[in-house]
Amino acid sequence: MPVTPFHIAAGLLFKAYAPARVSWVVFALVNVLIDLEPILWFLLSGDPAHRQLHSYLGAAIVAAVGVWPGRMLAEAWLRWWNRQLNPAQARWLGTGVRIALPAAWAGALLGSGSHIVLDSFMHSDMQPFWPWAADNSLLQKIPVDGLHAICLAAAVWGGLRLALLAWIKLPATVAGSTLRDATRLVEISLVATAGMTAVFFLIMPFFPENDRRDAVEFDPAVWRATEAAQFRGNPRAPMARPAVRHLEALRPTRAAALALLGPPDARDRPAYISYHLGFLGWIAMDADTLDIEFQPDGTFVAARIVQH
Ligand SMILES: [Zn+2]
Q1: How far is CA 280 from CA 210, 232, 238, 290, in A?
Q2: What is the Å distance from ligand 1's center to 279 Cα?
Q3: Are residues 144 and 175 in the same domain?
Q4: What is the distance in A from the centroid of ligand 1 to the CA of 160?
Q5: How far is the CA of 36 from the centre of ligand 1 (A)?
Q6: What per-residue confidence (pLDDT) applies to 1?
Q7: What is d(CA 7, CA 137) in angstroms, rounded to the nearest whole number?
Q8: Residues ≥6 apart with Cβ < 8 Å to 94
Q9: Looking at the whole model, is its pTM more than 0.85?
Q10: Cα separations in angstroms, 62 against 28, 44, 99, 116
C-alpha cells in the first residue's frame, strides 16, 4: 500500500477544491478502517493480505460505516480539535463541528474509492472487483515510488490551497496581526513543502533498489534453502533481478518453476506463485515478493518483483 498517511494526505486535494462538500475527517477515517484489514491479517496469520475490504464492494461497505457511525465519531473529534485551540489559533484552524450528511458521503466514497484505485497499482493479491472478477488490471501500471510522489504532490497542492483559502477569508477587522500570522503560515507551508520535496529527492538515491536486488548471481540452491519468510537480510533479495532474468529466459512451466524454486512461501494460486524477498522498498509496510504468473494450462506468462 501507499502507507495509510499517504492516502489520507492526498485527500487534502479534494478538501481544497470542495471544502464544504467533502468531509476530510470522514475521508481519513474510511482509509484507516480499510487498512485495518491487512494489519489484522498480519497479526493473525503473518500475511498482510488484501482481501474483501480492498475491493470496491468491500470499500463501499466501509464507506457506509464511515458515514454511520463514523460521522458521529468524526464530529466528536472535531469538537475535541476545537477545544485544543487558543482564540488566535481558532481564527485559523477552528472548524465547524457539524458534518453535513452529503459531505460525509462524499468524503467516505472519495476516501474508499481512491484507496482501492491507489492500492490496485501495488498489491498483487488484490481483487478490486471481488466477488465478480479475480484479476487486477491496474497492477504495476504505475511504479510504487511514482504512487508515493503522486500522493505527496496532491497533499502539498491541497494543503497550500487550503492555507490560501483560509488567508483570503480572514475578516478585514482582524487584518493587523492576523494577516502577519497568515503570511507566516503561508511562508511556513511553502518552506515546509520545499523542504519535504528536497528531502524526498535527496534521500531517494540512498535507496537504490536496483543495486540491492542485483548484487549476486541467481543460485537456485540458496533460493530453495530460504525456507521461512525472512523479512530482514533475506538471501533471495540480492539475487532477485538475476532470478527474474533467469526465469524470463527459461520460461518454465508451473511445475518446472516449482521444481526450480521450491514451494512458494508467500502465495500459491493457480494463476501465480509468489516468493518472499524481505523488505526492499524504502516506504513499504509489507515485504516484497517475486511473483510468477502462469496461464491456466501452466504455461509461463511473466516473472516480476512486486513491491507491496
Ligand atoms: Zn490499503
Answers
A1: 10, 9, 10, 12
A2: 17
A3: yes
A4: 26
A5: 8
A6: 43
A7: 20
A8: 82, 85
A9: no
A10: 12, 21, 18, 12
198: containing domain: 4-205
Could you report the per-residue pLDDT of 122-155, keeping only the tens digit for each?
888 889 999 998 888 888 778 777 888 888 888 9
The 3-state DSSP class for residue 90 equals helix
Task: Answer for the pair 264, 293: CB distance below 8 angstroms, yes or no.
Answer: no
All three cell numbers of 38, joined, read 491487512
**Residues whose CB is under 5 A from ligand 1 (ion)?**
1, 35, 119
Q: Are residues 50 and 127 in the same domain?
A: yes
Domain end (from 178, 205, 232): 205
Q: Return the pLDDT at 36.
A: 93
d(CA 252, CA 243): 12
Q: Where are the alpha helices (DSSP H) in 172-264?
A: 175-203, 209-212, 220-225, 240-250, 254-261
Q: Ligand 1 centroid to 80 CA: how many Å?
A: 27
Q: Identify the domain boundary among 173, 205, 237.
A: 205
Do the domain assignments include residue 215? no
| Residue 46 covered by a domain | yes
- Tell me which residues of the chain have a pLDDT lower than 50: 1, 210, 284
Q: Which residue has the cell 508467500?
A: 266
DSSP element (H, E) containing 111: helix 101-120
